[in-house]
Design goal:
It is a single chain. By secondary structure, this protein is α+β, with helices and mostly antiparallel strands. A five-stranded antiparallel beta sheet has the order 1-2-3-4-5. The longest helix is centred in the N-terminal third of the chain and has 24 residues. About 20% of the residues are buried.
Length: about 120
């Protein structure tokens, strides 16, 4: 693949890293998101000692990303480091990153129409 063909992927990867930084802030997780050696497109180092790696999946898979992680106290080469979680969507990617960082999901937001006013 030429440099020109890589440009859209590089831009998408940069946007993904920015999105992950914003997600850490929203989840109130202290940490950094940075570029790492290929195939990793984002490496997250949390203040808690957890590490998460987001890898772009190859063209021969039905997934977009693979997420690996190691929490504080886990030995290198643990199950989630050796067997990554496959993610086909951004929602799945965020769920895997949350799992890797040990972030609680929180309450689901419910949107409903306002009740009909009572006329007397």
């Amino acid at each position: 693949m030429s440099l020109v063909e890589h440009a859209p992927l590089a831009a998408a990867d940069e946007r993904l890293r920015a999105f992950l930084e914003q997600s850490l802030a929203l989840w109130q997780v202290t940490g950094t998101v940075q570029l790492a050696a290929a195939p990793v497109v984002a490496e997250i180092r949390a203040g808690s000692g957890a590490s998460v790696w987001v890898e772009r999946a190859g063209d021969d898979t039905p997934f977009r990303w693979f997420v690996r992680w190691r929490r504080e106290g886990d030995a290198p080469g643990g199950v989630r480091e050796v067997r990554p979680r496959a993610c086909s969507s951004l929602v799945g990617l965020l769920a895997a990153v949350r799992d890797g960082l040990g972030v609680e999901r929180g309450s689901a937001l419910r949107v409903a129409p306002a009740p009909e006013p009572v006329l007397s």
